[in-house]
Amino acid sequence: GEEVAQTPKHLVRGEGQKAKLYCAPIKGHSYVFWYQQVLKNEFKFLISFQNENVFDETGMPKERFSAKCLPNSPCSLEIQATKLEDSAVYFCASSFEGYSNQPQHFGDGTRLSIL
Amino acid sequence: DAKTTQPPSMDCAEGRAANLPCNHSTISGNEYVYWYRQIHSQGPQYIIHGLKNNETNEMASLIITEDRKSSTLILPHATLRDTAVYYCIRRGGTSYGKLTFGQGTILTVHP
User: Fold this and answer.
1) Which residues of B touch A6 (CB under 8 A)?
2) A25 CB near a chain B CB, below 8 Å?
3) pLDDT tens, residue by residue, B50-100
4) Smallest Cα distance from B49 to chain A, Å
5) Does the beta carbon of A55 lie under 8 angstroms from any beta carbon of chain B?
6) Which of A93, A110, B32, B62 could staple A106 via S-S, CB 3.0–4.6 A?
7) What is the C-alpha R_g of chain A?
């Protein structure tokens, strides 16, 4: 598609439950990026993929968080045993290539609320 | 971290040009300057980017100083829908993949 599609728009989970978020990149884009926005202006980079391969996972919490990008499927971000602090908006972005001169285009995010 | 400095907030009258400054005094030669904006709770929207030369597209113009230590995003005729948080981001070097967002500038366009 022409836009990055993220589903669901909203996700509510009880503390300790699993949460799974999905992202379909723009058609033809080979790079996918995940970001977490906890407070209104604070973004944190989580992980990026080049096709199905992890490109950069330096922002990914070591425990509970995992992500995949499999061929012919939306990319996913999964959080096991969610905590209150995981409440945030999770944004996915894609780019044609990973170079610095290729802009990333964002989806509208998934708002995750942990109760 | 790749740091930029922006004013926390700015106002602009509808129909006037909005000039948003950004300081990136420690930028290195292979780092691009990117501008994004976030309207309400939507995803960040790409506006424009540049390396050395000034750039213009249908949304905005980007003016980069000759020493590359600062830049200005220009929205030539601001509308109420341009009210948003604007982020100036350095991208390149050793972290050329990810975007590192700062606090941004809250631009309010008023009638």
Assistant:
1) 43
2) no
3) 999 999 999 999 999 999 999 999 999 999 999 999 999 998 865 557 898
4) 8
5) yes
6) A93
7) 13
